[in-house]
Specification:
Strand order of the largest sheet: 5-4-3-8-9
Bound molecules: benzoic acid
Number of helices: 7
Strand content: 15-25%
Structural class: alpha+beta
CATH topology of the largest domain: Glutaredoxin
CATH architecture of the largest domain: 3-Layer(aba) Sandwich
Shape: elongated
Helix content: 25-40%
Radius of gyration: 20 Å
Length: about 220
């Protein structure tokens, strides 16, 4: 299936939502965005995921990120479902909009279709997809999970921090990186440039190849 992937510009989706009609570009403005789909309303894993996104909404907001959920059912169904999500979440409000996609058009545009799951009438069902969108409206990172596997929202926050650091400092984040630990300097940065760009310095790891490409720094 052709599909939206990293580097692509996200289409300017127009849809009904729990916050009224939404035009995606107007909603995002110049912010980062996270759009995440769910197989369906009133399903167990989705209820826990939307609840956790609501619980972490402030963390995303602090990082300049706007959240937007998507499930194929209609707005009335979403509105009823939100009561369950908030009850599960001990009253924490769902403050982000949830898009409706009853015609299953948006999920096709956004590469959010589960290839195996079908609804009772044979229609397409969303996978558990999540796209992180940069201020330039390009997809920076995507998660593509099957319906049976709930996402780890701490991991969504972690990769967001990595993306934002990389966008700001010409660094990358190594294996199992956690916020606050050292980053590596991008290979496109020469040692001369690195001295200017990282005034706190950096450490180069000595390697058998003698190539000086593994450079750690704090930013
Ligand atoms: C769920 O959200 O729990 C779910 C939805 C569709 C298939 C399997 C699980």
């Amino acid at each position: 299936m052709p599909g939206l992937t990293i580097g692509d510009t996200i289409p300017n989706i127009q849809a009904d939502s729990t916050h009224g009609k939404i035009s995606l570009y107007d909603y995002l403005g110049d912010s980062w965005g996270i759009i995440f789909s769910h197989p369906g309303d009133f399903t167990p894993v989705c209820t826990t995921e939307l609840g956790m996104m609501a619980a972490q909404a402030e963390e995303f907001s602090k990082r300049g990120v706007k959240l937007i959920g998507l499930s194929c059912d209609d707005v009335q169904s979403h509105t009823e479902w939100i009561k369950d999500i908030e009850a599960f979440n001990k009253g924490k409000k769902v403050t982000y909009p949830i898009l409706a996609d009853p015609k299953r058009e948006i999920i096709k545009q956004l590469n959010m279709v589960d290839p195996d799951e079908k609804d009772p009438s044979g229609g397409a069902v969303p996978s558990r997809a999540l796209h992180i969108i940069g201020p330039d409206k390009k997809v920076k990172l995507s998660f593509l999970y099957p319906a049976s596997t709930g996402r780890n929202i701490d991991e969504v926050l972690r990769v967001l921090e990595s993306l934002q650091k990389a966008a700001k400092h010409k660094v990358a984040t190594p294996v199992n990186w956690k916020p606050g630990s050292k980053c590596v300097i991008s290979p496109s940065v020469s040692n001369e440039q690195a001295k200017q760009m990282f005034p706190n310095g950096y450490e180069t790891m000595e390697l058998p190849s003698k190539k000086e490409y593994l450079r750690f720094t704090d930013v």
